[in-house]
Specification:
The complex is a heterodimer.
Chain A: H1 2-7, E1 10-17, H2 21-29, H3 31-38, E2 40-42, E3 51-56, E4 65-74, E5 78-83, E6 100-109, E7 112-120, H4 127-136, H5 141-154
Antiparallel strand pairs in A: 1-7, 2-3, 3-4, 4-5, 5-6, 6-7
Chain B: H1 13-23, H2 26-37, E1 41-42, H3 43-47, H4 54-66, E2 70-75, E3 78-83, H5 85-114
Antiparallel strand pairs in B: 1-3, 2-3
Classes of the chains: A alpha+beta, B alpha+beta.
């Protein structure tokens, strides 16, 4: 139970890399190198505030368009982007959904680089789902909450 | 926009999003942690020592219930709440998949920068 609760908002990964920070930074932010390990062929370089597009390159998913909005590009320190994780179904338009935030934190160590990756924002409810849930719910959740509040107020 | 059925049959982001939303609140997480420690529990018992009003507790429990994280069973005149692990299993499956994808990516990154 604890593991689920502690994981719900953020995924955190940490890895020791036997390579200098400058090398890791290039592998993270050069769009060609990024594409190699992330398995995506990007159309162009990352620019903070812009959306980057490409095609997934892992077998069976080549038809899927990959999109991420670069947020912060702070050389050899922090690279972040927003995206829709696990968005591999070409039939689905993920763009209306609230994206998650991925952050890469770099730190020099005696043997190379400590890389910490976090992905956060899983608690955000996609707008479409919220609307759908509201419509499906009998009378709407807002009304239900009001009913409960009224009931409890009258039955202390 | 129906997304309840996915090709891969695994937990989709949209299916777990309401659960994440329900859990995205400190009070509800504490309530859930308390519920997960023991048996089904009444609103009165949840209120004891929580520093919250019965009304607030009820509101939070209903949000958790709506997300199918807890279920409510009637016992005489009381409503008892208990943890319903099914959505938590769904979340775990989804997060484990996203998490595993990161593990694989980072191993490929490691191979690239250390070659």
């Amino acid at each position: 139970m604890d593991s689920v609760l502690s994981q719900t908002n953020t995924i955190r990964k940490q890895i020791e890399l036997a390579a200098p920070v400058s090398r890791v930074w290039r592998a993270l932010t050069d769009c060609r190198e990024f594409g190699e390990w992330f398995r995506v062929k990007l159309d162009g370089p990352f620019t903070a505030g812009d959306v980057s597009r490409g095609r997934i390159t892992w077998p069976g998913h080549e038809h899927v368009v990959w999109e991420a909005g670069a947020q912060r590009i702070e050389p050899e320190s922090l690279f972040s982007f927003k995206w829709h994780p696990d968005s591999v179904d070409p039939e689905i338009d993920y763009s209306p959904e609230t994206p998650t935030l991925v952050e890469f934190w770099l730190e020099a160590t005696a043997t190379g680089t400590l890389l910490v990756v976090t992905e956060s924002g899983f608690e955000e409810v996609p707008e479409a789902r919220r609307a759908e849930a509201f419509l499906r719910n009998d009378g709407g959740w807002t009304q239900q909450m009001k009913n409960i509040e009224d009931y409890v107020a009258q039955h202390p | 926009m129906s997304r309840s059925i996915r090709n891969n049959g695994e937990s989709a982001p949209d299916a777990v999003a309401p659960v994440f939303a329900a859990l995205g609140d400190g009070t509800r997480l504490r309530l859930l942690a308390r519920l997960s420690e023991g048996d089904a529990c009444s609103i009165s018992k949840q209120t004891e020592g929580s520093g919250l009003t019965r009304q607030a507790i009820t509101k939070h429990l209903r949000v958790l219930q709506k997300a199918r994280v807890v279920r409510c069973v009637r016992s005489g005149r009381e409503s008892l709440f208990a943890v319903d692990p099914e959505p938590l299993t769904e979340i775990r499956a989804y997060l484990e998949r996203v998490s595993r994808q990161w593990d694989e990516r980072l191993l490929r990154l490691k191979a690239l920068v250390e070659e």
